[in-house]
Write a structure and sequence with these properties.
Layout (H helix, E strand, L loop, with lengths): L21 E6 L14 H6 L1 H7 L3 E5 L22 H13 L3 E9 L6 H16 L4 E7 L8 H14 L5 E6 L4 E2 L2 E2 L5 E4 H4 L5 H16 L4 E5 L8 H4 L3 H16 L4 E5 L54 H5 L5 H14 L8 E4 L5 E6 L5 E5 L5 E2 L5 E4 L7 E2 L3 E5 L1
Parallel strand pairs: 1-2, 1-10, 2-3, 3-4, 4-5, 5-8, 8-9, 9-10
Antiparallel strand pairs: 6-7, 11-12, 12-13, 13-17, 14-16, 15-17
GO biological process, one term: oligosaccharide catabolic process
Protein name: Alpha-glucosidase
GO molecular function: alpha-amylase activity
Length: 414
């Protein structure tokens, strides 16, 4: 398919560049290691920009780059030496922008310090520092617990940061669990909200539909857009979350088509496009997801991530069939499914604020269409094969049964 012709355009210097875009979250330390020390780094990300451009990514969201929390004197304007230097970040920004890819950063804020006027000035200086170097936006959270959802201190930080970004078109992201509201009021400061309710939904059509309706209603009452993602920093990848094995992967693929058919913004966690499960945990008492490093090529761990073994959860040898190399040219792979979904999403121009029309569907199924988008998405979470809705099939998450949609499968139709 003609991916390159639809990949990117020169982005305008106006607010709203993020609308309808596809964001790719990169855990820098686990993505690609350029210097064989066992830790992913910014040079490694720069080396892989061609891959991101090829599959159709519009923006990358880098985690683990800024070394110290903003809001403290002398802090918040440094790159973690484990992942690189300011020079390596600036080189990445330059090449990403040349490729038409925007770059956003995690920004940790010391919520206990920003109540002081002098530290609010430090916060402002840090935001200006990164913006002046070409950073296109920020995901803001407070420490401790930066991976968690927005709390009151985060909301205070957002209120301080928002005016600093009004003129330069930078995007402001936040993680949501209970909607676009805190005790300080609606989160009107956010451009994008990574809504984790969708990330933890069970593979159940009624629950998925309820969550989508709720998220769209919440976002509609505010100025921001929802970011639909199937995996976040605190929750397992969808293949594992939906049961693991063949069924877990089939359900993850089906939910990918639901995700990419929705209005707003799509978020992809690095490795999710490969259908990866979580790594095996040596310590079974930990509840945190075990993320192995990104598998790029070869037949043995760590699959081209690094020339050094690194201090990671053990990477399963079975990932040899799921590397980028193994999937890139396979038209039936999970990576190809993501590429095709990205291309069709652009081709059909699903509007960021489009209304979603729901259609009648058999028990355990759902079907919807975005106004003016031209694509109908149908999902079967039941245990029975059901008729496919009327229309021409343009993409399916798995094999169809003639004119019928099998369990654990989704389809797009025009």
């Amino acid at each position: 398919m003609g991916l390159n012709s639809l990949s990117h355009e020169n982005f305008p210097a106006t607010r709203g560049w993020w609308e309808g875009r596809i964001f790719y979250r990169i855990d820098v330390r686990a993505f690609s290691d350029s210097d064989a020390d066992g830790v992913g780094d910014l040079e490694g990300v720069r080396d892989r920009l061609g891959y991101l451009e090829l599959i159709g990514i519009d923006a990358i969201w880098l985690t683990g780059v800024v070394a110290t929390p903003v809001g403290r004197p002398g802090h918040g304007r440094d790159v973690d030496p484990l992942v690189g230097t300011l020079d390596s970040l600036e080189a990445l920004l330059t090449e990403a922008h040349t490729a038409g890819i925007r770059v956003t950063l995690d920004l940790a804020v010391d919520g206990t310090e920003i109540t002081r006027p002098e530290n609010r000035d430090e916060l402002a200086e840090s935001v200006r520092f990164w913006s002046s170097r070409g950073v296109d936006g920020f995901r803001v959270a407070t420490v401790p617990g930066i991976t968690g959802p927005i709390d009151e201190s985060t909301h205070r930080a957002l209120r301080l940061i928002r005016p600093l970004l009004e003129r330069d078109g930078s995007v402001l992201l936040g993680g949501l669990v209970d909607g676009w509201h805190t005790d300080l009021g609606d989160l009107v400061e956010l451009d994008l909200g990574v809504d984790m309710r969708f990330s933890i939904a069970r593979f159940d059509a009624a629950e998925i539909q309820r969550i989508i309706r709720t998220v769209l209603e919440d976002a509609g009452n505010n100025a921001g857009l929802p970011v639909w993602t199937l995996s976040t920093w605190d929750y397992p990848r969808p293949t594992t979350r939906f049961g693991g094995g063949v069924n877990g992967l089939a359900r993850a693929r089906a939910m990918t088509l639901v995700q990419f058919a929705l209005p707003g913004v799509v978020g992809v966690d690095n490795g999710t496009e490969l259908g990866l499960p979580e790594s095996e945990k040596p310590d079974r008492t930990s509840n945190h997801p075990a993320r192995g490093p990104m598998p790029w090529e070869g037949t043995h761990p760590p699959f081209g991530f690094s020339a050094a073994p690194g201090n990671w959860w053990p990477t399963p040898p079975s990932w040899a069939a799921s590397t980028v190399e193994a999937q890139l040219e396979d038209p039936l792979s999970t990576l190809s499914l993501h590429r095709n979904a990205m291309e069709l999403r652009r081709r059909h121009e699903i509007a960021p604020h489009a209304a979603v029309r729901w259609y009648g569907a058999p028990r355990g199924c759902l079907a919807f269409r975005c106004d003016d988008g031209g694509l109908t998405c149908a999902l079967n979470t039941s245990t029975s094969t059901v008729p496919i809705p009327p229309g021409t099939v343009v993409l399916c998450s798995g094999p169809l049964d003639g004119e019928r949609l099998p369990p654990n499968t989704a389809v797009w139709l025009t």
